[in-house]
């Protein structure tokens, strides 16, 4: 009975090794391909411009609030307690507005980023699928993945870049 178990285990090892060798696996530098795509470069530029614009609006509001705080701090001894309390409430309202602007800017940026990158990701995935089918790859793994332990198969990066028409 023990010999049968050992024989079965040996047969399973041979079969699994044979199946693994039958599969064609390639790697792909996804980050490198994406960074070489003109569409991605344009999207990155547009997103940076959008983020810089929003940041400038927030900074303008924060600077105005800071100026108001300085003014109110200097005038505080000359004002009544009631006036100072009202001014404190006004400053708190400005601070809340700035925080809301930051949250909205972040939400808007993420939405704009998703919208900008969606067609780029689709184009890349279509090119990867086309290259995989043309070259008979069963799997194409991301060469940048930390979970990739062994990489000796062919690299599909050049073929995908060629399919996308980039260098």
UniProtKB/TrEMBL annotation:
SUPFAM superfamilies, A to Z: OmpH-like
Residue ranges with Basic and acidic residues bias: 71-89
Similarity field: Belongs to the Skp family.
Protein's recorded name: OmpH family outer membrane protein
Lineage of the species this protein comes from: Bacteria, Pseudomonadati, Bacteroidota, Flavobacteriia, Flavobacteriales
Keywords: Signal
Stored InterPro entries: Chaperone_Skp (IPR005632), Skp_dom_sf (IPR024930)
Signal peptide: 1-20
SMART domains with a match to the protein in the record: OmpH (SM00935)
Family annotation (Pfam families): OmpH
Source organism per UniProt: Chryseobacterium gilvum
Region (Disordered): 62-89
């Amino acid at each position: 009975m023990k010999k049968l178990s050992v024989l079965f285990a040996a047969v399973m090892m041979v079969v699994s090794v044979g199946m693994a060798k039958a599969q064609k696996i390639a790697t792909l530098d996804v980050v490198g391909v994406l960074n070489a795509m003109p569409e991605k470069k344009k999207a990155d530029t547009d997103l940076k411009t959008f983020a810089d614009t929003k940041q400038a609006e927030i900074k303008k509001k924060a600077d105005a609030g800071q100026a108001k705080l300085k003014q109110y701090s200097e005038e505080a001894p000359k004002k009544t307690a009631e006036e100072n309390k009202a001014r404190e409430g006004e400053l708190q309202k400005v601070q809340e507005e700035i925080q809301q602007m930051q949250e909205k800017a972040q939400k808007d940026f993420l939405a704009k980023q998703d919208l900008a990158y969606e067609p780029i990701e689709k184009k890349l995935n279509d090119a990867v699928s086309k290259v995989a089918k043309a070259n008979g790859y069963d799997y194409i793994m991301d060469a940048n993945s930390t979970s990739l332990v062994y990489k000796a198969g062919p690299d599909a990066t050049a073929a995908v870049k060629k399919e996308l028409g980039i260098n």
